[in-house]
Amino acid sequence: MLSFKVTRLILSFIGIWIFLSVQAQDRPALEGRVVSAADGSGISGATVSLLPGGRSTSTDETGNFRFTSPGNSARVSVTAMGFQSLELPISGNMMTITLAVGETALEDIVVIGYGSVKRKDVTTAISSVSLEDVEERPIVSAAQAIQGRAAGVSVVQTSGTPGGQTSIRIRGATSFNGSNDPLYVVDNVPVDNINFLAPTDIVDMQVLKDASSAAIYGSRAANGVILITTKQGRAGQAKIALNALGTINQVTSRIDVLNAAQYRDLQQEIGVVNVPSGLTDQTDWFNETYKNGLTQNYQLSISDGTEKLRYHLSGGYLGEKGVLNTAFFKRYNFRANIENNVRDWLKINANVSYSDNTDNGIISGTGANRGGVILSVINTPTYAPIWNPDFPRQYYNNFYGVGNITHPLENMERTRNNKTRENRLVGSGSATILFTPDLTFKSLFAIDRRNGLTTTFLDPITTQWGRTQFGNASDSRNMNTVLTFDNVLNYNKRFDKHQIEAMAGSSWTSSQYQNSWINGSHFINDYIQTLNAANKIAWNNTGTGASQWAIISYFARATYNYDGKYIVTGNIRADGSSKLHPDYRWGVFPSMSAAWRLSAEDFLADVSWLNDLKIRGGWGQTGNQSGVGDYAYLQLYNIQRQPWFETGRENALPLINQANLRTRDLNWETTTQTNLGIDFTGFDNRLTVNFDLYHKYTRDMLMYVTLPAGASVANSLVRNEGEMLNRGMEFNVSSRNLVQNFMWTTDFNISFNRNRLEKLELQQIYNTANTSEVVNEPVVRNTPGQPLGRFFGYIADGVDPETGDMIYRDLNGDGRISPSDRTFIGDPNPKFTFGLTNNFSYKGFNLSVFLQGSYGNDIFNASRMEMEGMYDGKNQSTRVLDRWQVPGQITDVPRANYTMRNSTYFIENGSFLRLKNLSFSYNIQADKLTRMGITRLQPFISATNLLTWTNYSGMDPEVNQWGNSGAVQGIDWGTYPQTKSYVLGVNIDF
Questions:
Q1: Residue 787 CB partners (closer than 8 Å, separation 6+)
Q2: Number of domains the chain is built from
Q3: pLDDT digits (tens, 9 = 90+) for 862-874
Q4: The domain spanning residue 61 has which CATH number?
Q5: Containing domain of residue 46, as a range?
Q6: Predicted pLDDT at 107
Q7: Is 64 domain-assigned?
Q8: Residue 44 domain flag
Q9: Is residue 228 part of a domain?
Q10: Is 307 exposed, middle or buried (0-12, 13-18, 19+ CB in 10 A)?
Q11: Structure confidence by residue, pLDDT tens digits, 721-759
Q12: Is the pLDDT score of 627 beyond 90?
């Protein structure tokens, strides 16, 4: 009986498809012409699309287009650069379509979760990021393209390391231990980062900022969602595009150090090192360490298509050599996007992306005594040569008894042969079935497979550390495979003044991870750098591992639009995660939003300068289960190997110890967000203003709690521990200032966010971020009532003129300085961030000026603790020349060998204004080039980080040695600085 029902269902589907196919074939060809309303001339290159169905073509030189059959499509959409988009019903077999002159962003299509909508109908907080100038900027990661371009989106390049990490926060940090990264969705495929993606492959980026827009992605959208659409093929003439650029990178600033004589004087005061007289300066360590970095980037794409089949192929190479020349980043990338209208009722898409990334960094975030390269440039005395004259293959290390100095070239050598490589394949295939003009079904299957390989090798001769280890090497491999299977049913119906859009679907995601690692030492030389040349293979630092997780989800959305005036949208998503306890595994995340377009009301119909005015509001919830292990709620164990090679222990078995305390009620971390916004467009679509207010509250934060020692066998516990608040407002202004022969456009955005940790349950204080080892105290304290990442320490009230000691404030009044006198001394969270872009064009000349800035944030300059601490034999910066030396001296630099503490002495204003990018290009137009088939020849020059206005004394105010951490921000401790870049390149289309 069941078999008969299934068979009947299958036959019914086949019958529907056959019927649709026959009906489609019965309709005659659709032809037409697209013309300008200004003079009636044909518009070439306009895109004409059938709706629904998705087939599209381009108009020829006279504006004509043709479809062999419109199939079941009921409407046609037309877009063209410089004209207002138009959508109208198909009427007859011959159509003349007239487009009004003057483009408007209101008709732009905005991609949203599992769908799209016109910008004028958006009810939520969504920012669109233009990538028009991305080909003229030396950006390595697609994430850098967002920097300063979207209100409410903070993008910080925490390190200047080639291919370095970028931290993205959408409306502040929402999680303490969990991830604060947004969810990236590339061509409908969720991914955890976009390092594999070449920026020139992107055509569109939408940032879903509030919960009412992001909640459709449920448990993965607590930190916002960034939707990325890559370039697709278009019907019409085949196009080949080449983008090539070369970049010279330079350090933006330097820090002067003591010469040999000044160093000897300082050491006599400190009394740690007996430096002989007569030493001369031999090495400028800054010049020896920092060189010009080089970047080269080549990207080639080919696209073509017919009304049924379209494709876009691209590939490229990016090579970046850092200003610290042992650091590099290389990427080979390939992408293929194919779209095929197999039938009028069936469309197939295939997207395949492959990348091969290789990089190598340096030792940073630590002092020169631990191999930190940046600080060793300052801390190495200038009397020292590079090489040891007695042992020519060894770096010099005779520092007169100072055992904690190795110079920067030696520290760079320690990582020269380290390489991290990742091969990543992201592929998806989808089928869209058109049941009726109003009802479609899309099924998508995707795979994201990453293979990682990290190898290290330290030779046994060149460096002091290598000699003590007799050389060492390691090999670490991992493979991660994430499968996604989505099924979505969409219904879109218009009747009279009403429009209803409904969507329902399911999503299944599964991840499998496995890794292995092996370490060895005792190499005879550096000729063979693989582990087969190691005489010792580590018996307790070798092994394999594996883990897996899965999420299954069900979601739905419904939108009602009345006459373009009143729009209401509701979303709901239910997620079940394998990471959480079975009794609390499922989370339900609803949202709703509404908009009222006042400009469509009769009482504003006579306001000629008003094009659009809309009030919108939304409320929603999103979840988070990232940042905890794949088996977070289970009881876990540590395995401790036993030395089987010892006499009498040949058959010893490993010990198994409890690693954590089990959390039987582990639940979802949930963020509730309310958003109110106003959208205004006026003055003939030349001015657009967006304003948003938001309130985000996170409950049941997933956190790692440390219990007092001895309270149980294990003292680590993962639980739902705290609550946190983010609230703020955002402004975005876009204007077309001049629109004649000389064109000038301006885009400005500014964001204000206030963060506060509201509540903690078991553990009320989280201290973290130890800096200089001579102080060895955490400088960050997170506790309720304070923003995340606030600096904690002593208040420094200047230098005592009689003793030269730093005066620390006695807050508790007990007459002595003790840990109880510490307080909050700084806040790394900015009061606001902003970006300003001005674009100018005239007769083929184009100039773009992009400014970016941050105001009101503090930086804890831990580097100064090593550069001005004056506590051992390391060289110091020239600022210590102003140190206190005699009683009665007035200075703000304490005496040598003073008592150093984490204090306001190292807190600096991190506000800055930066000329982030300056680009100039020229479109060469000549009849000879056209006859050669070259449609664009655009040479360009560009400069990045050209000027920075700041009071910060370090090398770069835009740093954080703790990278993407939510709990620790704004600490500069020997961090690789960003560089100034000069670019020369060319764009060619033919």
A1: 754, 755, 756, 757, 827, 829
A2: 1
A3: 999 999 999 999 9
A4: 2.60.40.1120
A5: 29-99
A6: 58
A7: yes
A8: yes
A9: no
A10: buried
A11: 899 999 999 999 999 999 888 999 999 999 999 999 999
A12: no
